[in-house]
Specification:
five-stranded parallel sheet; FAD/NAD-binding_dom; transmembrane; FAD/NAD(P)-binding domain; single chain
Length: 319
């Protein structure tokens, strides 16, 4: 903010080498690499992480069992230590500035200019329309067996199936328990799938589900439409992953047949100067995977900026 000679408040354009949109593991990892490379960066974060309902995260080397918000707090602190800026806000639009860089619009009106963009805006989980499912999400209704399977091992588990790939998903969950029920609608299983489930001792319940049974703030079972209750301690549900890629598609980035923005090995999109990393382009990325993708994108971004710095220096050096 500044004031013009008349005393009116005016917005002052903030200029950065890289604007990183999304302050999760991918965004903060990239910010750390770039700020250590002495780049001026800003991480713009709306404060709505996908794993907010989870009390702990697992499978992250040296951080196993750490609360997700604590990882983000530590990450922000590390980025700031090297001069990186963290801006709490929502990006409403992106556009070319006509000079090879980008104009970033924020909901509060603050204008930002960046030479390059890294989008790490994640995805959202769409769950089946089943009463009680959302309320138990990341507690005893889970989606990632590699993230949470060990914590519910050897308990009475269930898989809400009926979607493409859910039988295979149930076979993976079977690694953590001998007591597993696969719930699905009538007529959805092929003979081969039924044989494979039965061969590994996975129970099959075919019928419409009415609701989850909750008592003392814990999942107790699954109630079917006929009133029968199947006792379960935890459920695994393969959600539908929906990328938060509106900003990327708005810039014209290419997408694949499933609607996911395509990137190269470093996270580079089809639009020059724009990178993407983490769950916004990789639905299967865990926290540690997203952090690695953010680091790889940051190294590629810095190399691209160096190439531009060289071209600019040569132009200025020539008579």
């Amino acid at each position: 903010m500044a004031r013009d000679p008349s005393g009116s408040t005016v917005m002052v354009m903030s200029q950065y080498d890289v604007a990183i949109i999304g302050g999760g593991a991918a965004g903060l990892s990239a910010a750390l690499v770039l700020s250590r490379a002495r780049r001026r960066i800003a991480v713009i974060d709306a404060g709505k992480p996908r794993n907010a309902p989870a009390t702990h995260m697992y499978g992250y080397l040296s951080r196993d069992g750490l609360p997700p918000r604590e990882l983000l707090r530590q990450g922000r602190e590390e980025v700031r230590r090297y001069g990186g800026e963290i801006l709490d806000g929502t990006v409403t639009g992106l556009a070319s500035d006509g000079r090879g860089g980008f104009a970033v619009s924020l909901a509060d009106g603050q204008p930002i200019s960046a030479r390059r963009l890294l989008i790490t805006s994640g995805l959202r989980d769409e769950l089946p329309d089943l009463p009680g499912l959302n309320e138990r999400w990341a507690r005893d209704v889970l989606h990632c067996p590699y993230c949470h399977g060990h914590e519910v091992r050897d308990r009475r588990l269930g898989v809400i199936g009926g979607t493409a790939g859910s039988v295979r998903y149930a076979q993976i969950v079977r690694q953590w328990t001998d007591d597993l029920i696969y719930f699905t609608g009538p007529g959805t299983l092929t003979p081969v799938e039924r044989t494979e489930l039965t061969a590994r001792g996975i129970g099959i319940v075919e019928g419409a589900i009415d609701r989850l049974v909750i008592a003392d703030d814990q999942l107790r079972g699954v109630q079917l439409h006929d009133g029968c209750v199947v006792a379960r301690d935890a459920l695994f549900v393969p959600p539908r992953f929906v990328p938060n890629n509106r900003l990327l598609t708005g810039l014209g980035c290419d997408v694949d047949g499933g609607g996911w923005v395509t990137v190269d090995a470093t996270g580079g999109t089809s639009v020059a100067g724009v990178w993407a990393a983490g769950n916004v382009v990789d639905p299967r990325a865990q926290v540690i995977t997203a952090a690695g993708a953010g680091s790889a994108a940051a190294i590629a971004l810095n190399a691209d900026l160096v190439d531009e710095d060289v071209r600019t220096a040569v132009q200025r050096h020539q008579p």
